[in-house]
Amino acid sequence: MAGGIVLAILLGPGAFGVWAVGLGLVAALQAMTRSGLGATLVRRPEAPTAGELNALFTFQICFGLVAAAIGLALAFGLLPALGSPADEAQAICLALLALPISSPRVAPACVLERELRYVPLSIMDVAEQLALYGVAVLLAAAGAGIWSLAPAACASAAAGVAAGLVVSPVRVRPTRRLGVLRRIWRFGAAFQLSESLYAVRDGGLNLLLLTFAGASVTGVWALAQRLLVAPVVLFQTVGRVGFVAFSKVTTREEDERQAQQVLGVTALAAAALLATIVASAPALVGGVLGREWEGVILPATLAAVGWMVLGPLWVALWGLVQARGDLRGPLVGGAAQLVVLWTAAIVIAPRFGAKAIGAAFLVALAVTAGLLYVHSRRFVTLRLATLWCAAAIATVAAAAGRAVADQMPTLTDLPLAVAATLAVWSLLAIALMPRDLHRLASHAGVAGMLCWRGSSRT
User: Whole-model pTM?
Assistant: First the structure.
């Protein structure tokens, strides 16, 4: 979030929009190969063999090299030959060199996740983010503009691989024996399609916004997403652990108990994060970003409401249904989001700007939440009262903080808006959701100690 805000200030809406398109393209292509086959090795009872890990690495690096070669040929060969402006495309496609560089990371990450060793995984993730935004901010401050993307993306990939070599004993090498992947291809391909839909959704949305609505609208929407990165990371992290955890559960009763607890605790935590972001947005824009970014407030608010509806349900159910081998719900939900958002980018965004995408995002997440809940009832039956209660707490807390921020939209008054939001959230959580608040406090208090001891219960 901090890196995104600094880059937005340095680059401005237009260049930041192009930067976001390139980063989204790299992320989408990485998602096409990182998750599926690796998820199969995580989910199954037997441990992956050295041959399977070598084949997974070979597949990754071949895909990365081919994707990078195609992108560079288009940007530096075809577009100049046709006489089309190619600077933005060249800056974006150069970042595809990060794909083959990041290939050695996947196999160690797969083994670590299977063993629930999230401390070394966290080290790898943090190393990537520090390198990405550290290099990007330095180059942008030096005047590199959109050309800061490719060095930053490659530095991020290299940092993740280097951290993986330090924290994991797994070593891989190229192999010609790719046939071993056939045993895991069926589930892996379906899982990969489910994961890739969401990455393609975001990458395609940014590209369509850049094409039909312009770079400034793309930049505003990209910053709105950066402001919401904290709750999104919360959802992704708990869902990521949930897939592994639910893979080890064998009874419906235990599924329901765990899913219900995850729903309540995550909804309450998300209420605090999302309410704080919504409440502080005017002060953040007025005191830090500047008036040129004023259009980010409404789309960020609408997207936050959507995440409040979908996020906790997604965390509680996504890992469960996929651990049971049923991928239809996630696939249908991802396809529905893609259709709604891409249609809005082409038809509505050119006229109404980023706020149209914020509204479409809210609708898409609400539809996905409903589809996922209905689809999951064959596995568990959740009580949604905790979700609606947490949503009500978030609404009241955000309104209280926004009232303060609207009156005093400056940087010095930002802490007052945050304090008002968290105070109201705390009082309502104590009154309405004491059990979930106690669980949340317990997890926050002992999680670090349990993780340090290597307890699988973490």
Answer: 0.81
